[in-house]
Amino acid sequence: MARFGKYIVNPETLMYEIKEEPRSLRILLYAVLTLLGLGLVWFYFWMYTSVLGLELPKTAHLRKVHAEWESRMEVMNRQLDLYEETLGGIEDRDDDVYRSIFGLDPIPENVKQAGFGGVNRYAYLDDFGANANLKSTIRRMDVLTKRVYLQSRALDEVGTVSREAGDMIACIPAVPPLCPDPGRVQLSSPFGYRTDPVYGGTRFHSGQDFSTSGIIGIPVYATGDGVVTSAKYQFTGYGNELIINHGFGYETRYAHLNTIEVGVGTQVHRGDLIGTVGKSGKATGPHLHYEVLLRGAAINPYNYMDMSISREEYQAMVEKREAETEAGKRTTTGEILRRRRTVGQ
Questions:
Q1: Degrees to nearest 5, angle at CA 100 with 98 and 101
Q2: What is the pTM of this model?
Q3: What is the percent of the chain with per-residue pLDDT over 70, rounded to a whole number?
Q4: Which residues does 12 contact at the CB level (< 8 Å), separation at least 6?
C-alpha cells in the first residue's frame, strides 16, 4: 500500500528523517474534519433560525423586496381607483349628456367589458409565479386601457356629429312651450306614473302638463327648429295634436290644443307660434300636454326645458322670431318683384 510521509527531527542525530504514515489515516482525518465543519454550519443555521427566530440574510432581503413591490402595487391600485372614478364620471356625462343631446346610443356595459371573460388570458402569469394581487392589478390595467380607448372613440364620434350637426343646438327642444307666467301658467302633472284624472288607477304619463288657470287660447310655441309632421284634429285622446320632427332622433308632441296654427310640412323655428292652449280630447280642463320623444321613446321633458328663463327673455325670443319672419316675408316679396322685372326686360 502506498504510504505518505512527513519530515520529523531525530533528537539523537539531530537530523530530519521521513516518517511514513498510512494514506487511509490521512483520508479519515480529512473526512472527520469535513463532517465536523458541516455539523458546525448546520448547528449555526439551526440556532439562527429555530432558536433565535431570525431569517437568513437572503430570505430577509427577498422579503424586503417583496414588501416593496407589494407597496408599489398598493399605490398603483389606489391610482387605478382614482382613474376609474374619473373615467366613470366621463362615461356617465357622455351617456347622459353628450350622446343624449346628439341622439346617439350609449355604449353598452357588455361592450366595455368584452374580451375579459371566459378564456383565462392571464394564464401565462402562472409560469412566473405571479400572485393573485399582481394578476388583479394587471387585469384592472387592461380593462381600464380598453375603456379609455372606447371612450376616446366615443368622444370622437360625438365630436364628428357635433361638427356635422351645424345648427343642431337650435333643433334640440330646450325651452318651455309656453311663456313663463306664474300668474297664468303652472307645471301640473309631471312625467311618470300618476293617478289618471279621468279613468282613475295608476297610469304612465308620457309628458309634462302645463295648466293655464282655466284660460283657453294662451299661445303655444315651438321649442326647437324642425318640421311639422302631424297635425290631427280629433275629439278623443290627445284631441288636437301637433308633432314636430326636430331631426337627430328628436320629436315633440303638443296635445289638447284649442287651435293649430301650422300645417304638415311647415318649417318652424324655436319661438314660432304653432297653436293655442285648449281642452280638446280627454282633458278635464284647459292645459297643454307636452312630450319629448327620442328615437320614438318618450323621455322626461323637464330635462329639456330651461325653467330658469324669465318671462322677459322668453318674450324677447318670440319677438325676435316674429321680426325675422316678417323680414323673411318682405325679402321673399322683394325677390319675386325683382324676378318679375328681370323677366320683363
A1: 65
A2: 0.52
A3: 78
A4: none
